[in-house]
């Protein structure tokens, strides 16, 4: 009898906890985009200027956004591979980029990208070209 009671309590605990576990998993999944760097290489034949290209694929889960940030001395090219992204540049407004569209964000501009669709994932190819490797690639800006 004790074993049955223990199993019943265990199963009851799972039933009570299950809805909360899914909410916690959902909150963690929405924490932010997932960046996978696929290339980081110095450009060759650029004279005395050291330049580096950093290529990444970024997955934006439903409703996720990159934080407000900037790239000191680095230009960003963002190409939407699937879904759509809103790119917002401080003081310059918002642009909706759909699958196949791209934007260039000038160095040192504070900006963010976000997936406003709460049901589907968006994916982008992001290329950073920078001249100053001694500066950080990205600086988060508190707003």
Describe the structure.
The protein is of the alpha+beta class and about 140 residues long. It has one helix spanning about 1-30, and strands at about 35-40, 50-60, 70, 75-80, 85-90, 95-100, 100-105, 110-115, 120-130, 140. The strands form 3 sheets. A 5-stranded antiparallel beta sheet has the order 1-2-9-4-7, with no helix packed on it.
SS summary, helix count: 1
Secondary structure: number of strands: 10
Amount of beta strand: 35-45%
What percent of the residues sit in helical stretches (DSSP H or I)? 10-25%
Compute the separation of the termini in Å.
59 Å
State mean pLDDT (0 to 100 scale).
82
Structural class: alpha+beta
Give the overall form.
Answer: globular
Regarding quaternary structure, how should these chains be classified? single chain
Secondary-structure element pattern, one letter each: HEEEEEEEEEE
In the sheet with the most strands, the strands line up as 1-2-9-4-7
Give a short account of the largest sheet: 5 strands, antiparallel
Cα gyration radius (Å): 21 Å
Unreliable stretches:
8-29
Brief characterization of the structure:
This protein is of the alpha+beta class.
